[in-house]
Amino acid sequence: MILNVMCYKMRGLKLFLHISEAKRGAENVRRMERKELEARQKPSFGVRLARAVLVVFICAAAAAFYLAWLNQTKAVSMPPMVMPQPYFYEEEQPVRAVLLWRETVLKTPAGGAVQFAHGGKAAAVASGDPVASVFSHGKNRNIAAPRRGYFVPGLDGAEDKWEYSSLWPGAGLLPRAPQLNWLENMSSVAAGKPVGKLIDLPQRPRAIFYFNITDLLAKQLERGYIYIRKISKGAKWYSRVRVYSIFGGQKVKAAVEMPYFTLDMASSRETEFLVCSDEGYGLAVPESAVVLRDGAFGVFELVGDTLKFRKITGKPLKDGMFFVATGLEHGNPVILHAAGTEERRVQLW
Fold first, then answer.
1. Any idea which of 101-110, 205-214, 230-239, 302-311 has the lowest mean pLDDT?
2. Which of 26, 156, 221, 226 has the fewest Cβ atoms nearer than 10 Å?
3. How far apart are CA 46 and CA 124, in angstroms?
4. Which residue has the higher pLDDT, 126 or 9?
5. Could you write out the DSSP letters of every residue in 81-136?
6. HSE value, Cβ hemisphere, 13 Å, CA-based, for 144
7. For residues 58 and 265, which has the higher predicted lDDT (pLDDT)?
8. Are 266 and 203 in contact (CB under 8 A)?
9. Mean pLDDT of the residues in the chain
10. How far apart are CA 81 and CA 348, in angstroms?
11. Is-cis flag, bond preceding 202, omega within 30?
12. 128, 265, 268: which is closest to 203 by C-alpha?
């Protein structure tokens, strides 16, 4: 009985081992079949190389087509444009001028301590107004203005010496005005000595100065006037030209009547102002819109659907702008960046 059971188990174990070997064999056969199939389906090196070359060619053709399309689009696309703006152009020349005026030196009738009516400062006075008083021998003696004018309690030493006959001749540099020496209030002054000067009013001091000539100034000089300003972009003052001389075709020496005479000008025989030397109406565009070609300035104007080169005249302004005097009319835009641009059609829409 026991022997039969053991025999049965042995037969079962052999059967199991036989089945396992059969399965492994079948799996090995399938694996070999797959390898043979993959080997038959794998392309050769030549085929793989041909495929790689074909892919590269397709990519290069696509890139070339894209670049060609991009260049074509760029060639006809609308570039950045700007509209010219109306502009009034003015040019100013700063000048230094020496002044000539009528004046009278006032003297004290007696020696003593002088007290000025306006605290030792320049002042506008009327005829008969006291300008100072002298305390002498226990009495005050008033010094009155003989006429209307600016009273200046000081002297610069050029009284009766600062004359047209010495300042106008020649083309040399104009002298510097001597410094005014103010008289101290309550200072002691001997009899017959000056206590200041009175600059007569009304009067228009003459100013002598140099400036560079321009076309506009040449025309104005022929008509006997120029325009000046006290401050830049301030009010313009008409100034009558009494005489002028041109040196070398460029430099002008002129003697004009000052259109204004303020109290602060009475303390010095020289002053500074601005000569309005050029002006005109035109258009203003950014400097980047202007290009230099064949020695001439120009812009690219959009006329219809075409960029056209226009020669212009003008000059640079401040803040990166350019003044266009002639060659361009308001209404059509110009290309913002003119460098490297050529005349061509553009796509408006």
1. 302-311
2. 26
3. 110
4. 126
5. EE--EEEEEEEEEEEEEEEE--EEEEE-SS-EEEEETTTTS-EEE-TT-EEEEEEE
6. 6
7. 265
8. no
9. 86
10. 12
11. yes
12. 265
How many C-beta neighbours within 10 Å does residue 243 have?
13
Confidence of residue 16 (pLDDT cuts 50, 70, 90): low
**pLDDT per position as a tens digit, 131-183:** 999 998 888 899 999 999 999 999 999 998 999 999 999 999 999 999 999 99
Alpha-carbon distance of 239 to 332, in angstroms, equals 40
**Got the DSSP string for 125-183?**
E-TT-EEEEEEETTEEEEEE-SSSEEEESEE-S-TTT--HHHHSSSSSPPPPPPPPEEP
The answer to whether 305 and 345 have CB atoms below 8 angstroms apart is yes
Question: CA angle, corner 299, sides to 91 and 287, nearest 5?
Answer: 50
> Above pLDDT 90, what percent of the chain?
64
pLDDT of res. 73: 46
* Cα–Cα distance, 228 to 260 (Å, whole number): 10
